C-alpha cells in the first residue's frame, strides 16, 4: 500500500511515516519544510507549498504516480499566531486543502485522512467531549480545522471518502530524532525551561478544577500515529463518505500534574511559577474515546508517565 503524507516531515507526520513503514507501507512525503525537517524521514520528500498557485499542477504530477490514500497534516497550527494573523491561516490551511482536494479529484484519489483538532470544540463545558458535541471553535486555527472537515465531507460529491481525526494534546517522542523541536506546547516548553535553568510557568491556577490548573487529554504521538494507519484501514473497509474520530486517551491531566510527573521523570525537584491565565484556555478538554475504541479498534497504549519519560529522555 502506498501513502502520500502531507506535512510528513513534521513532528507528528514523521512519526506517522515511521509507523507506516514499520507496518510495511510505502510512504511519500509532501512538505514545504517551513517547520518540517527532511532528515526526519527515510522516503521521498517533495517540497511543495500546498497553498501556492503552482501547487495543483505539482500535486497532480505527483499523484499521477498512484497512491492508495492521502494523509493530510500540512497546516499551520499555532493558536496564538492564528489570532494575530488569521488571513495566513485561512490562506494556508484552507487554500492548501482546497488545492489538494482539486488535485485528488482530477487524479481520482478517493481516500483521505484529515488531521483535525480538539480546537474544533472551542470551550465545551463538559467532563469529556464526544464527536457529536457542538463544534464552536474560538480561534481561527480551530475554525480552519472545522472548515477543513466540511470541505472533506462535501467532496463526497465526487466520491471522496474521508476520515477526520480530532487530535487532543499530542506529546512525547516515539523514536530518537523525531522529538517535537518547536516548543509550542506545555511539555516541550516546560522541558525547554528546565534545560535553560529556568522554571516552568503555570498559566493560571484559579480554574474550576481540583488543583486550579487546566486539564487536558495528553496522547502519545505513537498512539496518534497508529490511529492514522487504523484510519486508512477503516477507509478500506467502511463505505460511509465521512467520519470523525477523537484521538486521545479519555483521561485528563492538569498542568500541575504534568509538572509533578516531570519532576519524577527528570529527578529535578524544581519549582514552577504561576502566571495569569492565558486567553482562550478552556478549563478542561478531555476526549470521549468510545468511537475510537469501537470503530477504529484502538485504545491508547501509553499514559502520562510514558509520554513525559519519552519527551525527557528521547
Ligand atoms: C496545554 C495547557 C495551557 C504552556 C493546543 C492547541 C490544540 C492542539 C494542542 C493542535 C493549557 C497550559 C502551556 C505553559 C501552561 N494543537 N500551559 N504553561 O492549548 O491545550 O492545545 O495544542 O491540534 O489545537 O490549541 O495546548 O500545550 O498550549 O497548553 O500552563 O508554558 O498547558 O494554558 O492549559 P492546548 P498547550
TrEMBL record:
List required co-factors: NAD(+)
Q: Which biological process annotations from GO are given for this protein?
A: galactose catabolic process via UDP-galactose, Leloir pathway
Keywords of this protein's UniProt record, alphabetized? Carbohydrate metabolism, Isomerase, NAD
Q: Matching InterPro entries, A to Z?
A: Epimerase_deHydtase, NAD(P)-bd_dom_sf, UDP_G4E
A GO MF label: UDP-glucose 4-epimerase activity
The protein's matches in Gene3D superfamilies, at most eight in alphabetical order, are given as: NAD(P)-binding Rossmann-like Domain, UDP-galactose 4-epimerase, domain 1
Q: Does the keyword NAD apply?
A: yes
Q: Where is the NAD-dependent epimerase/dehydratase domain?
A: 4-248
> Entry's Pfam families?
Epimerase
Where do transmembrane segments lie in this chain? none
**Record flagged with keyword Protease:** no
Q: Which family does it belong to?
A: Belongs to the NAD(P)-dependent epimerase/dehydratase family.
Q: Which NCBIfam families match?
A: galE (TIGR01179)
Identification of the protein by name: Unannotated protein
Species assigned in the record: freshwater metagenome
